[in-house]
């Protein structure tokens, strides 16, 4: 899994180049890189001084000229930590909220405060929201913008041309990638220790969960069923969450990889022990909702148990994914214990 970073002109790394020190100062003072028009003047300190002395005044530029004349090399500086962070992606919202200082968050995506989609909606409500429109993003004057591999290409390209760093976050499809994503964003924000602490807590809780799973005598089957009859098989994040919770993904045994449609008839003929539902606009009278509430599924009660998980808990993979695995284990474990009690 690779995080894609595009850098604007202001964040280009000068390490390993032979840009003179006075050219670096030129760029800092006049807030633009050295162009062909300027190169002859910036090539020597005194020519640069003569060109701009009449504009800014000798009193201002004499100290700069002394600095220019005495400079012999350009030291590569570490890029500054982002002070104005913008997220235009739901997955990035959750990471920025956990890793960045609140005062550095300029805006989050317009989905961040929707509790049906975001696990941190309450925290996100305290911040401004934005869309993927470049003109709206520019009004926020960001140092860095977090998006995803699905962010409109024109948005990413325009931000790069305008000198704003854009980071396209990949989609985490397993626990290892969740870990890598947290550490990657933490490094970009310059808060590595904070990211390491989040990952360490996640790993500790997953290890404790595996101990509880090992105490089970059986490993029941489970299948997710979304609006419209979609399920998630192998190579999906929910598949790995099920495994962590001590469940076997029934969709994998049906040959499904990733997300795919599963006909209702096929589900009825081969039901799992647990049917995992991810409700979204559950009360809306849509065909997708009618399918997951079909009476044929209700008639399987006793053979197949239904468990509901908030959709927001499964959309994005990060350190919070352990919450979903723990919840799924606790729900299935309670049903299994109840069933064992009835059989005795």
Short description:
The protein has 344 residues and is an alpha/beta fold. The chain has helices at residues 21-30, 36-42, 45-56, 58-70, 90-99, 121-124, 134-138, 153-161, 175-188, 192-214, 237-244, 250-253, 264-269, 287-292, 295-298, 312-315, 321-343, and strands spanning 4-6, 85-87, 105-109, 129-130, 144-148, 165-169, 221-225, 230-232, 248-249, 259-261, 274-277, 305-308. It is elongated.
Estimate percent helicity.
40-55%
Q: Topology as H/E string?
A: EHHHHEHEHEHEHEHHEEHEHEHEHHEHH
Task: Name the CATH homologous superfamily of the largest domain.
Answer: Nitrogenase molybdenum iron protein domain
> Can you identify the CATH class of the largest domain?
Alpha Beta
Shape: elongated
CATH architecture descriptor of the largest domain: 3-Layer(aba) Sandwich
Largest sheet data: 6 strands, mixed
Strand order within the widest sheet? 1-6-5-2-3-4
CATH fold category name of the largest domain: Rossmann fold
Alpha plus pi helix count: 17
User: Beta-sheet strand percentage?
Assistant: 5-15%
Distance between termini?
A: 48 Å
Mean pLDDT: 80
Number of strands: 12
């Amino acid at each position: 899994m690779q995080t894609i970073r595009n850098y604007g002109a202001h964040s280009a790394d000068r390490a390993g180049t032979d840009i003179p020190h006075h050219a670096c100062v030129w760029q800092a003072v006049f807030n633009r890189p050295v162009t062909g028009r300027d190169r002859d003047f910036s090539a020597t300190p005194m020519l640069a001084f003569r060109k701009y002395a009449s504009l800014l005044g000798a009193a201002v530029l004499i100290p700069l000229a002394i600095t220019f004349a005495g400079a012999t090399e350009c030291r590569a500086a570490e890029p500054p930590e982002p002070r104005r962070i913008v997220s235009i992606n739901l997955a990035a919202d959750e990471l920025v909220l956990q890793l960045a200082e609140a005062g550095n968050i300029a805006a989050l995506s317009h989905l961040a405060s929707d509790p049906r989609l975001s696990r941190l909606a309450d925290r996100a409500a305290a911040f401004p929201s934005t869309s993927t429109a470049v003109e709206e993003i520019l009004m926020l004057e960001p140092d860095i913008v977090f998006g995803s591999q699905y962010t409109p290409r024109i948005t990413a390209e325009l931000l790069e041309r305008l000198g704003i760093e854009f980071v396209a976050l990949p989609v985490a499809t397993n626990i290892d990638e969740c870990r890598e994503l947290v550490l990657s964003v933490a490094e970009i924000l310059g808060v590595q220790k904070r990211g390491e602490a989040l990952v360490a807590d996640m790993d500790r809780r997953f290890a404790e969960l595996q101990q509880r799973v090992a105490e089970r005598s059986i490993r029941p089957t489970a299948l997710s069923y979304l609006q419209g009859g979609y399920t998630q098989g192998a190579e999906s994040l929910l598949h790995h969450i099920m495994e962590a919770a001590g469940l076997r993904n029934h969709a994998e045994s049906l040959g499904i990889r990733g997300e795919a449609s599963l006909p209702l008839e096929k589900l009825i003929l081969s039901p799992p022990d647990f049917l995992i539902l991810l409700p979204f606009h559950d009360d809306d009278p849509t065909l997708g909702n009618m399918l997951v509430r079909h009476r044929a599924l209700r008639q399987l009660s006793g053979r197949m148990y239904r468990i509901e998980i908030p959709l927001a808990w499964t959309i994005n993979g990060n350190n919070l994914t352990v919450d979903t695995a723990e919840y799924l284990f606790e729900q299935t474990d309670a049903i299994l214990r109840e069933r064992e009690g009835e059989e005795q």
